[in-house]
Amino acid sequence: MGTPLPRDPIADARRNWEDHGWAEVAAPMAAITAIMRTQQILLARIEVVLKPFGLTFARYELLALLSFARNGSLPMKKASTLLQVHLTSITNAVDRLQDAGLVRRSPHPTDGRTTLVELTSEGRTLAKRSTTALNAEVFSASGFGPGDIDQLIRILGDFRRNAGDFMDS
Amino acid sequence: MGTPLPRDPIADARRNWEDHGWAEVAAPMAAITAIMRTQQILLARIEVVLKPFGLTFARYELLALLSFARNGSLPMKKASTLLQVHLTSITNAVDRLQDAGLVRRSPHPTDGRTTLVELTSEGRTLAKRSTTALNAEVFSASGFGPGDIDQLIRILGDFRRNAGDFMDS
DNA sequence: GCAATATACTAGGACATCCAATGGTCGGTG
DNA sequence: CACCGACCATTGGATGTCCTAGTATATTGC
Asked: Nearest nucleotide to B112 by CA–C1' distance?
């Protein structure tokens, strides 16, 4: 972004909460606000890396999901469920990926309601190359302390399970 | 959302990364993906609480920021900087808050380029009431373990400082 | 003092997300 | 076997975010 701020705005917000008699919820407010901001920073980094490939994060996620699917294809609804976004967002992403020649729609062999999304060979190639770029330019230097990453995975995993995202251990 | 998934899709993604020779970055990938998903869950909860007030999170943030400002007013640019969003997003939010009678634009007394955004009394009232609702319905039961909240604040604070968000301790 | 540069805000466009509504297709139940 | 509720996908609308100009006002520098 721009120049670093002289002070942490989230720490300021926390102080404001405490000063207004909401001290009991000041810490969770700060934690939640920090997650919002962190997501924003990470998303921006990811989009910068994906831009040269003509991809956005939403489209990349779908491409990557398909590349790990058994035969490179999934029903729209299944993609929606696994990526945890509305089906309409999948429709939107598939439209654009299809225009770019990276995926293809095909009818489900036995269920007339279902549409399968399938990687083209260009799509598979781009999925691999963009993943390599993300690994090299974002994930390998995430900016989190080494020990902090495991902490994050555990804390956020607990949160997500608690929020009803998934069930297993 | 819908029904909980039988398995954690992020844990699956992590396994996929490991199985494809990207084991060194599998953990940070999982942590980053978890942050994305956690943000999505939290944002949805917040929006549900704010909806009865006719607010979105973007508009609430601006309203809350103004309510803590000295005289309830700030230059657009200052709000943009503190909230870390594009100036055009502030323009957009102010347009809608102004239509709702919650804020008012006024010229800066000495700088003709600058527009001040100022809370109306309705805006100040709504800021207070919506904050009370968020405190009661989201922050007081954030879903994070008690000890985890401080961990999160530290880890994400380190990350944000490292990312150039702010400079102080 | 005036021209060149920088800053503040707005306008319009591209994307993404969600919601509500619509149109087909499946399936279980009489 | 026909019907009605459940399910899948698309379309259209509202919001929000960022980016790229374009306009107006300040500042800088010669």
From this structure: D25
From A76, A161, A165, select the one nearest B5 (Cα to Cα): A165
d(CA B66, CA B124): 8
Q: Exposure of B75 by Cβ count < 10 A (0-12 exposed, 13-18 middle, 19+ buried)?
A: middle
Q: At what angle do helices B23-50 and B57-68 cross, to 10 degrees?
A: 80
For strand D, list residues 32-61 of chain A whose Cβ lies within 7 Å of it. 40, 44
Q: Does B21 touch chain A (CB under 8 A)?
A: no
pLDDT confidence of B169, banded at 50, 70, 90? low
- Specify the pTM: 0.95
A11 Cβ within 7 A of any nucleic strand D atom: no
Sheet holding A115-119, edge to edge: A73-75, A115-119, A103-107
CA separation for the pair A65, A115 (Å, rounded): 16
Q: What are the tokens at B142? A: 């954030």
